[in-house]
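Appendix B. One record, verbatim.
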Amino acid sequence: HIPVSFRKLSSGWTARINWTVNGKHHQKYKAGFKTTADAQLWASKAKIEANQGLLSTKDVIFTDYFNQWFTAYKEPKLVNQTINRYKIIQWLLIRYFGKRQPKSIKRYDYQQFINKFGATHAKDTVNKTNTIIRGCVKSAILDDLIQKDFTQGVTLTFNNTKAIKVDYLNLDELQRFVNATAEKRNIHYPSRYMILTAIYTGMRLDEIQALTWKDINPIWKTISINKAWDYTRGGDFKNTKNESSKRIIRINQQLIDWLMDSS
């Protein structure tokens, strides 16, 4: 991530960006902007130029490249939770590979990294971590930083004791759970209505949290899913996970009755 700072002076707004390549600090600075919008526009263009310059530098440190690849190609289209995953992976790479360049990392080195990481993590976590790193390495090949994919053919190892076992309710248990939740519904406890909605629709938690009354059509028996709730940043409406997540689903009369009695 390339930090940007703005400051208002008597002569106008200033903008400054800072970044590091191979331990060397760089910055761009410009003053005299009439508005913050002008300063932000300049900073956005300067960040793109800095990213492009770093991505084309063959002596770049692997973890620096990972950060710039993530910032340029991934971050703009990711939700907060996924962004945090990328940042955690970058921290792991910094701890293990330090200031090594991509061209110095061999398949054996990456296998050792996976072995160490997998010793304390579940299979799903190892798979997701490896997939993200492989994406970065393939990008490095496209940017002509390396010639071979050092993640290719690596054996994924993991700790079976770290796996989360999920026991699903059978139909009878699910029906009893629904009945108990419905009987104890109370307008002062919206979570019970949310649980019933989740069971009857399969909607995501953030989609249910973002529902408003205008999204529910009791006449046509539908729910319109057109937004989500950003609970990771203190709460606010946000876009759905992707465009295909925007949809209209049909619901039965029972769920409509439960929701309407909470209005």
